[in-house]
Amino acid sequence: MDILVKFTNFRFLMVLALVMTSRVAWGQLCTDLPVERTVSDQKGGCLALVPIGTPLIAAKTLIVMLHGDGEGQLGHRQIDRWTAIGRSLSAPDRNVFFMIRPGYQTPVGNSSGWANPKDDDYTAENIARVAGALASLKSTYKAEKLLLVGHSGGAATSALVLGKHPTVADAALLLGCPCDVPPWRNHRNAQRGRGGPWTNSLNPLDYISTIPSGTRVMAVTGSQDDNTLPEFAKRWVEKASSSGVHARYADAPDLNHSSIQQWPDIHSKVSELINSL
């Protein structure tokens, strides 16, 4: 009996140690972050930020980058990748931020809200939190124009912000966008041989009609992307263009769903969008 008790206690201590270790890997709550690394979502919470460089008190253009899906967690590798993209986008009279989507836990800070461990979380509530945070940033840094750069789930979130909160952003670069969610999920489920429809998530294709006609959007998908197939972004662009949005589509040659984040034209396309505003 003593041996059993000792073994049980040992297992408990090991599990506790693992839990404590895993907690150390994640960052602080956004409420505990320095002011430049957090922003109100205007829904009673906040979102964590990674500012690229020192934010300017007033800059004409605000660029906000949004990451893809990750089962509610984001690691150092993804953050380093986005930081590198942000540095390439930096320029005088621009503020660049990487924003942690609602409910995500990361080493640089944890955002308020809910993230589904199965990634089905493009909800109206989460889109409203992102839109509220964008509006707060725009006001704080006195930006005249706001441009979104989103990848995968971050691209879908960006497209939904454009449609559901049309006064917030002026332009967007959508990288590997699952812009038509139901057929995309059917495709992914068939690839994996498992899964069902996403019942929580909104579909960006359904929220195009409210996007202002002057909005500039470029959607780019890797030619080798077998996750968010080019057809999903093309479908969104075709419908948006027919609604008066200045939307364009381009293939990124030889890139897949992940490597599109190393697309060398990100900087030039962002500058092109900004100059068109």
Can you give a write-up of this model?
- It is built from seven helices and eight strands.
- It has 277 residues and is of the alpha/beta class.
- The chain has one domain (28-276): Rossmann fold, CATH 3.40.50.1820.
- The protein has an eight-stranded mixed sheet with strand order 1-2-4-3-5-6-7-8, with helices on both faces.
- A hairpin with a 5-residue loop joins strand 1 and strand 2.
- It is globular, with a radius of gyration of 20 Å.
- 44% of the residues are buried.
| β-strand number | 8
Q: What's the helix-strand series?
A: HEEEHEHEHEHEHEH
CATH topology: Rossmann fold
Contiguous low-pLDDT stretches (5 residues minimum) are 1-24
Strand order in space, largest sheet? 1-2-4-3-5-6-7-8
What distance separates the N and C termini?
75 Å
Kindly estimate the percentage of residues that lie in beta strands according to DSSP: 15-25%
CATH class: Alpha Beta
Overall pLDDT confidence = 92
Biggest sheet layout: 8 strands, mixed
- From the alpha-carbon coordinates, what is the Rg to the nearest angstrom? 20 Å
CATH architecture: 3-Layer(aba) Sandwich
- What percent of the residues sit in helical stretches (DSSP H or I)? 25-40%
Summed up, the helix count is 7
Oligomer: single chain
